[in-house]
Design goal:
With 281 residues, the chain is an alpha/beta fold. The protein has helices at 19-27, 39-42, 44-52, 80-94, 115-134, 149-153, 175-188, 204-209, 225-232, 249-258, 265-280; strands spanning 8-11, 32-34, 60-65, 67-68, 75-76, 100-104, 140-145, 164-168, 192-196, 241-245. The chain has a single domain, classed as TIM Barrel.
């Protein structure tokens, strides 16, 4: 049994929602669980309640709203009424209020809008989630963005500030996205940053060609390249937690083990300077 470590968030994006995985996560000290309304064919909340209702109180539980079932599979909306109803439904389906509710990929509804229209639409959506938190439907609220660049273009200054900002993290995140996240965090003054997709969506072949272990101090040859990539993701951008999806308890155990490694921040800074230099050349 490991001590609780909130830095690893078990994501359920492609998970089969098995009870044994959740039990194993708790045994490893992974006490943060992240899902979303559309996961598991829009049945993630119900599946969790059906298979692991007794385990859910042991997790810090986050979910996301913004995608809704449609004839084409799913549609995105920032309509504040729909978002409020989605938060209420999440609590009913889960059998408990989630600790965090994220606005799910708001950039999907901002495409093609003028900065002024986007600012207004995003503002109404953020106000709805802030209100849900104020009314006790969740403990805090946040924004989960796959591409943070459009959020910066609509000017977030003056909008409700999220308690948690979740963005893509790791060595496969491009310099434009890293820069956009830095600008967004500064402008929005978000309380906390989480990373996600530290392996770039499962591109395992990348780690066969690229060894990230030199980013650790000292280089940890006893760790795998995937472990080193995961540990380094906490610094690209700087994040207090990183969400990762797996159905393999053994893989999860390896990631927890990687937390003991120390990242060479000087090497990360040099890497970032190289990225910026390549972009400008």
């Amino acid at each position: 049994m490991y001590g609780a470590d909130p830095r690893v968030v078990l994501g359920l994006h492609r998970s089969r929602h098995r009870r044994d995985l959740l039990t194993a996560a708790l045994g490893l000290g992974v006490t943060a669980l992240d899902t979303a309304a559309p996961y598991f064919g829009f049945h993630s909340h119900l599946a969790l309640a059906e298979t692991a209702a007794d385990l859910l109180p042991k997790f810090t539980l986050s979910t996301k709203v913004g995608f809704f079932p449609s004839a084409g599979g799913a549609e995105h909306s920032l309509d504040p009424v729909r978002l409020r109803l989605a938060v209420e439904r999440a609590a009913r389906e889960l059998g408990r209020e989630p600790d965090i509710v994220f606005l799910h990929n708001p950039e999907r509804s901002l495409a093609g809008l003028s900065p002024a229209d986007g600012h207004a639409l995003l503002g109404h959506a953020c106000t709805a989630l802030a209100g849900a938190a104020r009314d006790g439907l969740c403990r805090v609220w946040g924004v989960a963005s796959w591409d943070s660049r459009p959020l910066g273009r609509v000017r977030v200054e003056g909008l409700p500030s999220p308690d948690v900002l979740m963005v893509r993290a790791g060595l496969l995140v491009g310099v434009d996205l890293l820069n956009a996240t830095t600008v967004l965090r500064t402008a929005w003054q978000a309380g906390e940053t989480w990373g996600m997709s530290p392996f770039g969506g499962g591109h395992r072949k990348v780690w066969e060609d690229f060894d990230p272990r030199p980013f650790l101090r000292p280089p940890q040859d006893d760790l795998s390249r995937m472990q080193a990539a995961f540990r380094t993701a906490f610094h690209l951008p700087s994040a207090s937690a990183v969400a990762v999806g797996t159905d393999d308890p053994g893989h999860l155990a390896q990631l927890v083990q990687a937390l003991g490694a120390e990242v060479d921040t000087a090497a990360v800074s040099q890497y970032l300077r190289a990225l910026h230099g390549h972009r400008q050349s």
